[in-house]
Design goal:
single chain; about 170 residues; alpha/beta; Transcription Regulator spoIIAA; seven-stranded mixed beta sheet; about 40% helix; globular; disordered C terminus
Length: about 170
């Protein structure tokens, strides 16, 4: 599969997140940083996920998309819009429970500005693991099926992320 890319843009408070190719966890820390910055902008009022050029979207990316949708809804925005005509992508969004968070459409849109590639740094292993863990916790919160699907992965990642405990030097 073609390697993935995330492109971003904004016009009049509408932020566009365009996923291209096969979007995987190697982009997750940069994507999460963008998400945090996006929500600091006072003009933020809507978000559109353009998935027309996506060929694959992994569960970490889906978890970050859910995070965006939840934060937008918490801010009082309308449901974000996901654009895709691909039956596989649409099925994936439905199966993950995204219908509660986003509107899904197959229409093409003009954004008012062309999204630009998000500069993505290669995450260090620890940062990537933390983002994967956070994204999967969000997916688990969407429905019981996701909770069951990702439970073992999340438990494994939680164990790996626990700081190593040193025995106390003090004697009682």
């Amino acid at each position: 599969m073609q390697s993935g890319q995330i492109m971003v843009g904004a016009h009049e408070g509408v932020y566009v997140i365009k996923l291209v190719g096969d979007v995987r966890l190697n982009l997750c820390t940069s994507f999460d940083t963008f998400i945090d910055k996006m929500f600091t902008h006072e003009d933020f009022n809507d978000v559109v996920f353009d998935l027309h050029d996506a060929r694959g979207v992994d569960s970490t990316t889906l978890g970050l998309m859910a995070k965006v949708a939840i934060r937008a809804l918490d801010r009082g925005c309308q449901k974000p819009l996901a654009l895709s005509a691909d039956p596989g992508i649409r099925h994936l969004l439905d199966a993950m429970g995204f219908d509660a968070l986003i509107e899904i459409s197959d229409e093409q849109r003009d954004y008012g500005s062309e999204p630009q590639p998000l500069h993505c740094n290669t995450p260090d292993e620890c940062a990537a693991r933390e983002k994967v863990l956070e994204a999967h916790r969000v997916l688990m919160s969407l429905n019981e099926q996701n909770a069951e699907t990702f439970r073992d992965l999340v438990h494994t990642l939680e164990r790996e992320c626990e700081p190593t405990r040193k025995p106390s030097a003090r004697m009682h």
